[in-house]
Every structure is written in structure tokens, then in C-alpha cells.
Amino acid sequence: MVKTRLRNQVISVLLLGFIFFAFSSQKIKNFTFYVEYVAKAQVGDEVKFLFHVGDYVQRVKVYSDNKSLGTAYVTANKATFPFLFSYSGVKQLKFVGISAENDTVNVSYGEIVITGKIFQHDVIANERKNAEKDNTITASFKENSPNDALNYLAPSSLLRFPPTPNEDPFGKNRNIYATAIGHPTAQEARNFIAEISADAQYLSRKYQIPASIVIAMAALESGYGYSRNAVYANNFLGIKQWKGNIYNAYQLKGQPDEHEGKVAIIEITADGQYIYDEANRPDNWYKRFNSRYDCLAFLVEEIFLHKTGLWKRDYSSIARFYQGQIAEGVDKYSAAYSFVYSIGEKGYSHKGGKYYADRIMKLVDQYNLIQYD
């Protein structure tokens, strides 16, 4: 009787120990998260970040000085993220492990020393901090809004833009569409493609939309991230906000009239440029996004898929046709061309499907973007 009771107690202790070990192992596995990378590199060198993560991490977002560099996706508890730094300095790094449910699982910090010359010499610029800042719009971002005359420096940077008549007596209206002076360089364009591809691929996998087209559209519409809308509003696609809360929008002052000639003109300069009445015009407000990913997600979910039905045009039938083509085995390039041609023809571009598709597919060819589909 005593032996039986003792044996039962031993078994209970072993069982509890096993349960505790299993639970502890699971907890340890949950918090496995570290990254390997070099401590120092030169401008233009490819830096590879190698992540070792637990089972709960589906992707890792990489930040440098609070600017999002992109996202690495996990396979077999590992992920690799290559990046070319364009500017020298000590970079403060942040790595955020995110689950499939979009929850933050792990956060890690580090730094890397980048030495060497800046790629561009005509205009000095710090790395822009316009993208993701922990998914918030900071007070300094709002206070440094360029919507006041002559204030057209990008927040936290020395980026300068060709002036409009609102900003300079010799400014041009067409300059509102120009990229920052001296930008993008060829290397900056390649960096933009590398940075944005991970987010585009994620959305492509989730919704079966061509990532190549999303990347090319963002590159074309934003001047590889150096348009005013991209710098000041994280709007890489020229997405307008005709109605609604202008607190979450950015006004592109000096933009030529896109309201059928209804915008009042205050002054015509000696050079024949227009200074418009910006107080009540509805045609030059653009959506302000918290991050680059939010902008791309809006394009895919609201414009392409028409999820909420709030966007003025419905392109969801084009998205379904593309998905059907892929399912039937149509080659990805042909399907991607058909997709962008159709959205252009349906009104996304006022110049029609062929014009828009030819411009987009030129970038797809130039950077071999079809590899991301």
C-alpha cells in the first residue's frame, strides 16, 4: 500500500515536471529572436541581416533611425534581409517580429556604423524619416507641415523641391509634380524597389494581386519616393481625398487646376504662372498615410478590391479576372499587362489603358519586377 502510494507520487511529480518543461520550452521558443549582421559597412555595400526567430514570428520589420527599411518574411524560423545604406553615420536599428495575426511578438535593438561618401553630391540629404515611425504621425511631422508658403523642406531632412509660385515669385506650377532636387539617383531608385518589394509581395500573397504592378505604380507615381506627396504624406500613389476629414490629408498647394476650371485665381505672375485661392479648393487634397505599407494596402484593398465600396470606381472585376488567369496558367507577365491595361482603361489613368500600361510595364522590364509575382 505504501509502495503504491509512493509510486503514484513519483509518477505525479514526473508528470508535473514534464508539463512544466513542455510549457517552459514553449515559452522559450516563443521568445527566440536574434539577428546577425556586421558591425560596420561602407555606403553602397550590401548588408545582410540574418534573423533567427521562434515559431510565432511570421515576418520581421526592419527600421533604421525610425524609418522603415522593409520587411523580411520567415521560412523555417529564419529570414534574410539585404539592404544598401545610402548615407554614412551610426544607424540606430530596430527589429520587430510580427505574428501571422499581425501582433508584435518581439522587439530588438542594435546599431551599425556606415562609413563612406554620400551617393549624391549636389544636394546633401539625411535619410528621410517619412515612412513608418512606429505607425504614428509625430507632432513634429504636423508642426513642420509644408502647407505654409516658403516652407517646403521635408520634415527631419534637407530635401528641397523646385518651388511653385506660392513659394517663390519665380516658381512654376508644374514644379508641384517634380521630385526633390537631385533625387532620385539610380541607386536610390534601386533602393526604393528593394524596400517596397517586401510589402508588395505580402499584399500579393494575401490577395493574389500582381506585386510587380504595385511596385511599378508606386515607383512611377512617387518618383521612387521623392515626390512631395511621398515625402510629406506617405502617399506614394497620388491618392486623392476629395471629401472628408482634411486633418488626415495633405494639400498640394500650387497644383494646376484639376477641378474643371473652377478654382479661383488670386494672381497671375509676370511669368504667366497661377497663384490659386487655396482656402476653398477641393482638387488638391491627398490622403495622408501613417506608413508606406498603409498606402499600398489602401491601393490593393480599397481601389483594386473595393472592399468597403467607398472608392468611387470599382476595379474588383479586373482583380478577379487576373486571379482567374493565374489559376488557368496564363503566364504572369501577360496577366500583369492585362491587369494594368484594364485599370487604366477603366479610368485609373485619364490617358487610357495602353498609355498607362506601357509606362508601368517599362519599369517592370527595367527592374525585372515580374520576379515578385
Task: Quickly list its features.
single chain; 373 residues; alpha+beta; Immunoglobulin-like; three-stranded antiparallel sheet; 35% helix; globular; disordered N terminus
Write the layout of secondary structure elements.
Elements: H1 2-30, E1 33-36, E2 40-42, E3 46-53, E4 59-64, E5 67-73, E6 78-84, E7 89-98, E8 104-115, H2 139-143, H3 186-207, H4 211-222, H5 228-233, E9 249-251, E10 265-268, E11 274-276, E12 285-287, H6 292-304, H7 316-328, H8 332-348, H9 353-366
Parallel strand pairs: 2-8
Antiparallel strand pairs: 1-3, 3-6, 4-5, 4-7, 7-8, 9-12, 10-11
Q: Could you provide a short overview of the structure?
A:
The protein has 373 residues and is of the alpha+beta class.
Question: Please, could you describe this protein's structure?
Answer:
By secondary structure, the protein is an alpha+beta fold. It has a domain at 33-115: Immunoglobulin-like (Sandwich), CATH 2.60.40.10. The chain is built from nine helices and twelve strands. The protein has helices spanning 2-30, 139-143, 186-207, 211-222, 228-233, 292-304, 316-328, 332-348, 353-366, and strands at residues 33-36, 40-42, 46-53, 59-64, 67-73, 78-84, 89-98, 104-115, 249-251, 265-268, 274-276, 285-287. Strands 2-8-7-4-5 form a five-stranded mixed beta sheet. A three-stranded antiparallel beta sheet has the order 1-3-6. It is globular.
